[in-house]
Design a protein that fits this description.
By secondary structure, this protein is mainly alpha-helical. It has helices spanning about 1-5, 15-30, 35-60, 70-80, 90-95, 100-105, 110-125, 135-150, 155-160, 170-190, 195-200, 205-210, 220-230, 235-245, 245-255, 265-280, 285-295, 295-305, 310-320, 325-335, 340-345, 350-355, 365-380, 385-430, 435-450, 450-465. The chain folds into four domains: about 1-30, no CATH class; about 35-195; about 200-280, no CATH class; about 295-474, Alpha Horseshoe (Leucine-rich Repeat Variant), CATH 1.25.10.10. Helix content is about 75%, strand content about 0%. It is found in: Nucleus.
Length: about 475
């Protein structure tokens, strides 16, 4: 009966299906770019519909039916404005005509559906992915738009709006995700805005609260990514993060991976972001003090002992912790029996399991280089003879196996560095006199070949020779 009621055309489609395809064809036939006249008309239409909605809302505040249609028109026009993203070179017109102010006003609209549509629009207009595809004029227009939005308190409005979105609802949850995407867009376009965002808003506090929630979802994962970005290159952001008890929050978030691995690729990425954020924060001495007090070293040692996926990043965190002016931290590390876990990794214990279980994530060379860096800093910064003896004893025990290991690594890295050095010497003869840029490039190649690790290994061997007369028991 259903087939008899359907009217089919020669192409086999029902009338309803043909209508759907006609709509799709109309969309596809629209020009992919917008010229200046179309751009201006779009702006004027948007302003007109926005003004009408505001007037009706004021006039009939107690009767939503009176402004419902204008709200639907406004939502539709916001979506239509997204086509402007194809012509970032025209964005200065949005600034010139004060349209940015109108767009940002929608973030405080009483109807959260409108504010979410506005978030979608801003996210589309500032999409960082277009940076590599546009010319200088387009890039200048994009930067002009971002600057004007920041000057008109976009960050403050976006963060305030986060607090009224309820992530139990699908639309609001997507609104949160797109808001985080806007932050990433802005910082990618202008990196210094990472500090502006933290300085002018409570975004760090919001992120810390969000990642403290036990349930895992894509928004929590995205928060971890934004946190890593915010802490990457800013001392001010790292110190504020520490003041907000962010270190203990990160340690609690990471502690769940002490005895279990992430369940999927998204959770792996979140864990990696947490570790990256922690490493960035640990550049600051104030964060190192807090990390020590919050028993961060103990947690990292447990992760190394468990030999799960987190082991690789835990060793990296310890490297960052013990690098710098760190005598107190180095001696504390030895005091809490860190040498046992460190030298187990140094000797390659558990490597076969790690390679088999985590072939995509695990790097044996990266792990051993972090171990070498830690040992080098221990020799450099430990002042107490008691702790130095314990460190040297590790190289003496078990029939000097760790001496044999350090010599083996010395020869490996020596070979790699010398091989690269010969290639550079050959190229230098071909180039003749080198400019500064080429010199820098050659230096980076030396580092990539393992020069720094080779130097650290030599440093360790030198210390072992110096302390050869220390009486050790084994």
């Amino acid at each position: 009966e259903e087939e008899e009621n359907e009217s089919f055309y020669a192409d086999g489609l029902t009338e309803e299906q043909r209508q759907i395809y006609d709509i799709i064809d109309q969309v596809e036939d629209e020009p992919s770019t917008v010229d200046i006249n179309t751009f201006k008309k779009m702006i004027l239409k948007f302003e007109k519909i926005l003004s009408k909605n505001q007037q009706l809302r004021m006039k009939y505040a107690d009767d939503p039916l009176k402004f419902m249609d204008s709200e639907a028109d406004l939502d539709e026009e916001i979506k239509h404005m997204m086509s402007a993203s194809t012509t970032p070179q025209l964005y200065p017109k949005l600034v010139e005509l004060e349209t940015v102010k109108s767009i940002l006003s929608l973030l405080t609209h009483e109807n959260t559906d409108i504010s979410i549509a506005c978030i979608d629009l801003i996210n589309e207009l500032t999409d960082e992915d277009v940076l590599g595809e546009i010319d200088e004029e387009g890039e200048a227009g994009l930067k002009a738009l971002v600057k004007d939005m920041v000057d008109k308190q976009a960050f403050e409005l976006l963060v305030a709006n986060l607090n009224r979105l309820k992530e139990t609802q699908d639309e609001d949850r997507q609104g949160v995700f797109n808001t985080l995407s806007i932050f990433e867009n802005f910082i990618s376009i202008e990196p210094k805005l990472a500090e502006v965002l933290v300085e002018k808003t409570d975004i760090l506090k919001w992120i810390i609260n969000r990642i403290s929630q036990k349930e895992f979802d894509s928004n929590k994962q995205y928060c971890s990514e934004i946190l890593a970005i915010l802490l990457q290159n800013s001392t001010a952001n790292r110190l504020k993060f520490c003041e907000l008890n962010g270190v203990i929050c990160l340690l609690k978030s990471l502690s769940i991976f002490k005895r279990r691995d992430p369940e999927d690729s998204e959770e792996i990425e979140m864990m990696e972001n947490f570790f990256d954020a922690l490493c960035s924060a640990l550049i600051e001495n104030k964060v190192k003090e807090t990390f020590l007090k919050d028993e961060g070293i103990e947690l990292m040692l447990l992760m190394i002992k468990e030999k799960n996926m987190s082991r690789m990043r835990a060793i990296k965190v310890l490297d960052y912790t013990l690098t710098g002016d760190t005598s107190m931290y180095c001696e504390y590390f030895i005091e809490v029996h860190g040498l046992k876990s460190l030298f187990a990794a140094f000797m390659g214990k558990g490597v076969k399991k790690m390679k088999k279980a985590y072939s995509k994530q695990y790097s044996e060379s990266e792990e051993i280089e972090h171990c070498i860096s830690i040992i080098s800093w221990l020799f450099k910064k430990v002042n107490s003879m008691k702790y130095l003896e314990r460190l040297v004893t590790k190289f003496v025990e078990n029939d000097f196996e760790k001496i044999a290991r350090i010599i083996e690594l010395y020869l490996q890295y020596k070979e790699k560095v010398e091989k690269e050095e010969k290639l550079i010497e050959k190229e230098t003869k071909e180039y003749g006199e080198l400019d500064e840029e080429t010199e820098d490039l050659f230096y980076l190649r030396r580092l990539d070949s393992g020069l720094l690790t080779y130097q650290l290994i030599s440093h360790i061997i030198g210390h072992l020779c110096i302390f050869k007369e220390i009486p050790v028991s084994y």
